[in-house]
Amino acid sequence: MLTQSAWFYTKSALLTLGGAYAVLPYIAHALVEQFQWISPAQMMDGLALGETTPGPLIMVISFVSFVAGWNQALFGSHDLLLSGVIASLVATFFTFLPSYVMVLLGAPLIQASGQQLHLKAPLSAISAAVVGVIMHLAIYFGHHVLWIAQGFDLYALLLALLAFYWLQKQQASPLLVILACAGIGMVKSLF
């Protein structure tokens, strides 16, 4: 698993453009469906954790890799914590390794090519593709929030619509909306 994880995170760092929201659907698909290291619920927990902190990519990768290492019991059932920590460290290291190598080797080339007009069209196309990938993440997230094991979650839909209303029509602070929705969710869980 550690070798697969190292190669997967290196590949995901090299093959995806656009930041965390562009790479997270790829990671979610691979960890849940391809490798089956974690469950969809565990991936949703990781995505939710990532949205509560700065730097969502590393938070999600560290969390889901820890859970995957724990689930796979890499060093036996008596060393689950060690399995999780090592899996998380491998994923984190190999996620950022290509970026550091590319920055060190490619920075002078990027700096020199910044004013070349023939590069602007491809970069615009990449930006458009990234928007599509981010929309895919929103759909993935929405699907797993709204369709739970018991069926469609009308409560989650109503809360999402209320949050959208507060953000769009009332111009409420995102932090206040997050806190209000968390409070409403906590109250609901008590009843």
Task: Describe the fold and architecture.
The structure is a single chain. With 191 residues, this protein is mainly alpha-helical. The chain has two domains: 2-148, no CATH class; 153-191, no CATH class. Helices cover 79% and strands 2% of the residues. The protein is built from eight helices and two strands. The chain has helices at 2-15, 20-34, 40-51, 56-72, 80-113, 120-146, 154-168, 174-190; strands at 147-148, 151-152. It has a two-stranded antiparallel sheet with strand order 1-2.
Helix-strand topology string: HHHHHHEEHH
Total number of helices: 8
Strand order of the largest sheet: 1-2
Distance separating the two termini: 41 Å
Helix content: over 70%
Estimate the strand proportion. Answer: under 5%
Largest sheet: 2 strands, antiparallel
Q: Kindly state the mean pLDDT as a whole number?
A: 86
Could you give the count of β-strands?
2
